[in-house]
Amino acid sequence: MEAASFRMDAFRDAILQRAPIESFALKTVQEFIQPQKQTKLAQDENQMLENMLRTLLQELVASAAQSGEQIMQYGQLIDDDDAENIHGQIPHLLDVVLYLCEKEHVEGGMIFQLLEDLTEMSTMKNCKDVFGYIESKQDILGKQELFARGKLVMLRTCNQLLRRLSKANDVVFCGRILMFLAHFFPLSERSAVNIKGVFNTSNETKYEKDPPKGISVDFNFYKTFWSLQESFCNPASLTSASTKWQKFSSSLAVVLNTFDAQPLSEEEGEANSLEEEAATFNIKYLTSSKLMGLELKDSSFRRHILLQCLILFDYLRAPGKNDKDLPSETMKEELKSSEDRVKKLLEITPPKGKEFLRAVEHILEREKNWVWWKRDGCPPFEKQQIEKKSPTAGQKKRRQRWRLGNKELSQLWRWADQNPNALTDSQRVRTPDIADYWKPLAEDMDPSAGIEDEYHHKNNRVYCWKGLRFAARQDLEGFSRFTDLGIEGVVPVELLPPEVQSKYQAKPNEKAKRAKKEETKGGPQEGEPNQIGVSNSEPEAEGGRGEAEAMESDAIADPDHRPMSVS
């Protein structure tokens, strides 16, 4: 026994020493466990180390309890370099174990087992500090190599904490645990989903059955009001029997009529609202008949009841149910009228009734996505990354096939399917001016701009294709330069920088040769549209031919001259 005690004391001193964790953690394990492999423990060696750590943790908690200190501050260690960096012995021990688990020197679930033991040995006050440590290490604990080993232990630990906490007095702590579980587990984790849709019927709202003596209270309204909670607790019961729905509908009408008859002013809403007083806010309201008058003047109380009504209506209309669970046509009409009344009351309930109603409607609309997800069997949201297989040597890479020849046309067709007016809208067809369209390419051609080829507009095939279409319609002279000078030659010369204009500006003699060549090819058929219309008399016809020939000779001399028809 003395040897075992001495060995435990030596292990305690070694594992809690004040030094960087990476400098002593693995050496300490190798010294006291003596594993077969130097960097990774076997199964029996992991069990031996876990027993030693659990024993040490129990001793530290017992020592902290005897000293009256909080367990996470017991035996604080102050770093020499940073006096403000203070650590208790238990957080330091957990950091060492977490380091060993993260580096895969020991089994990954060991840290989760120690955290479960620590919460079981701690009071609820100390559990808040322990859980604060868990929240601070959430990113490391959530790594795949650790999460796979300890997710069930962590889920059991959090559920045990929730059972120990009071749902009325420890609302904030319960919320912290639920938020941690929501972030720690994947979005599609089925363990947190109520697959069967079972309601918590044990959450019973108790209220007075007999009228009190000596107090003037509308006891019939009191009983009618709190009887609604029975239906809110188990909404499925309303569709099983028509009598229950009729009773609920009549009771709800009485409550809504009372809210209508006693509207709240802005001053009353701001004065009586408890939403800003988080410290005095409870998860359940008191049901004493003496408080009925005061609660009706509380805007947050009214919102609580009206919001319950909207949630109930949303459930009854939820898709994906069996035929027997769906509401009847009469019931649907009553649901619609009741919902409209509830929304109107929420809108006029101060403060900020309209904003509150919009937020509630947005939340309920998003809730439909979760309903469908549950009805479809909770398929996982996470998708495995598809590995791109490189083509083997000698195998041609298969080109992607598009429905209509290329990506742009296929995308246009898909837009037309989704929006039939996409191609017929008069505002869609806007042909830009040729000068405005070529301006980006002209700016790229400026040497001082220093545009790289990768970002140059001349390498954008879609841009060039559209530009050629515009040039063919609006600028035939520029379009003709494409054959000799490429896409940059189509750009109007006046848009180009001075040092670039000379390169793409055609010489006059070249234009004359081109015009003469076109005249030779066209023959008399091309000349007819350019002739001046004359009368049928012979002298005038000869004169007309002479004028036409003169105009053609002028066109050769002046390349910018364009013949005109005179009617």
Largest sheet: 2 strands, antiparallel
Number of strand segments = 2
Strand content: under 5%
Strand order in the largest sheet: 1-2
Q: Could you describe the 3D structure shown?
A:
- The structure is a single chain.
- This protein is an all-alpha fold and 567 residues long.
- The chain is 59% helix and 1% strand.
- The chain has 25 helices and 2 strands.
- The protein has helices spanning 2-15, 21-33, 43-67, 89-102, 110-121, 124-136, 138-141, 144-164, 171-184, 219-233, 237-240, 242-261, 266-272, 292-296, 299-316, 329-348, 353-375, 407-418, 434-444, 461-474, 476-480, 482-485, 498-504, 508-527, 538-557, and strands at 77-78, 86-87.
- It has a two-stranded antiparallel sheet with strand order 1-2.
- A hairpin with a 7-residue loop joins β1 (77-78) and β2 (86-87).
- α3 (43-67) packs parallel to α5 (110-121), α8 (144-164) runs antiparallel to α9 and α12 runs parallel beside α16.
- The longest helix is centred in the first third of the chain and has 25 residues, at 43-67.
Q: Notable features of this structure?
A:
single chain, 567 residues, mainly alpha, two-stranded antiparallel ribbon, 2 strands, flat, disordered C terminus
